[in-house]
Write a structure and sequence with these properties.
Elements lengths: L6 H8 L6 H15 L13 H7 L4 H14 L3 E9 L1 H4 L7 E9 L3
Antiparallel strand pairs: 1-2
Helix pairs in contact: 2-4, 3-4
């Protein structure tokens, strides 16, 4: 397992205090997308954002939780939302209905 920075350290490294909020939000999104690989860890849906960074990977739920925490640190309203994907849409991936997660961001700056 790789040793990674914690959430606060990643925030300090990625955010540019002189940049607009929306550009910092994009930078945080890109960091999570590009630096945290897709995969499952031993806590499945329940790892802390720090653990997701320490593991260096997470699937949709842990990565979106990490992004939500980073966006909140930036001062944005950010929430995770579960959405149901009907079985007929994902029948080739799995035989039962699935839940996907999206992030709602309110960029009022």
């Amino acid at each position: 397992m790789a040793t990674r920075e914690g959430v606060e350290e990643v925030f300090r490294q990625v955010v540019n205090e002189n940049a607009p909020v929306c550009l910092n939000a994009i930078a945080l999104h890109d960091y999570v997308r590009d630096q945290v690989k897709f995969g499952f860890n031993k806590y499945f849906d329940a790892p802390s954002p720090d653990y997701t960074l320490t593991c260096d990977y997470g699937h949709c739920n842990p990565k979106s939780h990490l992004m939500t925490v980073l966006f909140k640190m930036l001062g944005l309203e950010a929430y995770q939302h579960f959405i149901a994907i009907p079985e007929d849409i994902i029948k080739r991936c799995h035989s039962s209905p699935s839940i996907a997660k999206s992030i709602e961001i309110w960029c009022l700056a």
